[in-house]
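Dear Dr. H.,

I hope your travels went smoothly. While you were away I took the liberty of generating a structure for the chain from your last submission, since the lab meeting agenda had it listed for discussion. I wanted you to have the full record in hand beforehand rather than looking at slides cold. The sequence, exactly as received, is reproduced here:
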Amino acid sequence: MPRPDFSALLNALRKFFAPRLLLLIWNVDGLKAVVAEREGGGKWRFSEPAGSRISDFAAALDEALAGLRVAGIARIPRVCLLASRFVVPARLDLPIDPDSPRPEAQMRELACAEMEPVLAEAGALWSIGAVLAARGSLTPEQRERVALELAIRREQASDSMFGQTACALSFIEQFELEESLAWQEKLQILEASLACGWKGFASAESGNSEPVWLAAAIGLSAWGRWESVCARHGLKLLGALPFAWSVSETPEETETRVALEIHSEDVVAVLRHRGRIVAARSEGRMERPLEAGWLMRMIEDWRTGGACALEIVCLNDNDETAALTLADALAERWGRAPIVRNPATAWRDLLSFLAQRGRNAGRDTQKMPLPMIRYGRPKKPLWKKAGLWQALIPLLIVACLAGVETRQRAQIKAVQTRLDLSSFEDQKKTQEAQQLTQFYQQQKQANQTLTARRQEVTRLIPELERLQSIEHMTTQLPRLLRALAASIGDDAALDVVRNSSDNEMGRVQVLAWSPNYNSAQTFALNTQAASGALGYAVAQANVKAAKGRNGQDGYQVSFWMLPVTEELGIEDTASTKGGV
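The corresponding predicted structure, in token form, is as follows:
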């Protein structure tokens, strides 16, 4: 009789019990959900991603899980790991030995205090224009057009906002603006309480053993909402990792490596030594093209000859061509050809990294390469608790005696319950009514407090913008004056250099005189070229006939120098009414 073939049954059982994990990526463009399943040889197999662009996490998760079921995944894993751009990472300056950390409560307090300014700086990057562009609602050309239109309206004393101007130009719909405002509120973390994860190790870079502490933080209310929403779906949230550092992780790395992560609104530079992050910094793109000059300035102090590898991680398809061009430009300056990780490879590596971290999330978190927000620790199995077996027999005896006594008390209590049932029901209804009234009062008070806080923040934002403009002008004024001195020719004279009366946007007005029309034009054009490197552009230039100081006939040239911001990209602004 032939022996039965159990291979098909064993394969089915192995597949059923294989480790499975739900990976969630929650960014400004929405939520992506992927099911990861462990295969043989330590590899992972990933399902097609299901996504949602809804700004509410609960509704987005509902839509994403429904998309997975439509794709044929009937058995959704019960454990999940979250990677999010809302989780902000940073290196902390803590003079604490990683081998002898402080108690957990004290470490959390120290980490949260260090992360508060980091979260504020990260939130300032996300203007409404940046959110609209990151979500694909505005193209770069449309964003520039809105910024120019907004500048014109402000010069006309119009109280327009960027989002309203985009709607007026029919670039976006009102619902897109409202969704982007909701995303902006999530990205600009304004709450005082934070959920924080941290890890520390001793850096061995260049023989230096100084402590390195890494942390990641998010608003405590956002973290609590993530946990509660996952729990409503029967999901156990293992933790949350920062998206910004996770995308450039490389398993089993041994050499020193610098990674440039090209995100939609900023570039994140990460220095790793033997797979561990020892330094990181970021800089907003501000609608600038990806050029080797300003990117090299970010990482030049990390260069160590040709021993340090350089990698460019491209996450968006529309940046891939620029990344390849950037690699050629950086090769000569860096001394070593950079490695370019295209979007498909970057997302595949990210999923592999998240799956492996999720599988090891229940183990020692200090061995993980990145800090993870994860409250609570796994409980020890009952059979591993000390003294269980020694106390088992006495406990059984006590339990039996307690059972007899409990039964007698239950019989007495049943009689008492039947007598007091009517009174108990009345008291319960009265108490519920009081609790409901108290809840409504607390909710009303909380809404009033929230409205007052929002009004206070709204009042402070214009003042902050004005102070930032003054600070920017104070820093750039000496350089602008030197640029003006270098731009003026031998046959031109500088008459007036002054800022606007209200110092709006740090504008500077320049008046000069020349006996020659072409010299006046040349001065304006030279100033445009020199000020571009300082982040300024020439606008509203005008050349007209005018008397000089000694009454000599000539031409007066006047123009404004405006700072180029992430919402105002001014190009070719040296055109004037006089033909400059």
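Two observations you may find useful: The first strand starts at residue 20 and ends at 27. The first helix runs from residue 7 to 16.

With kind regards,
E. W.
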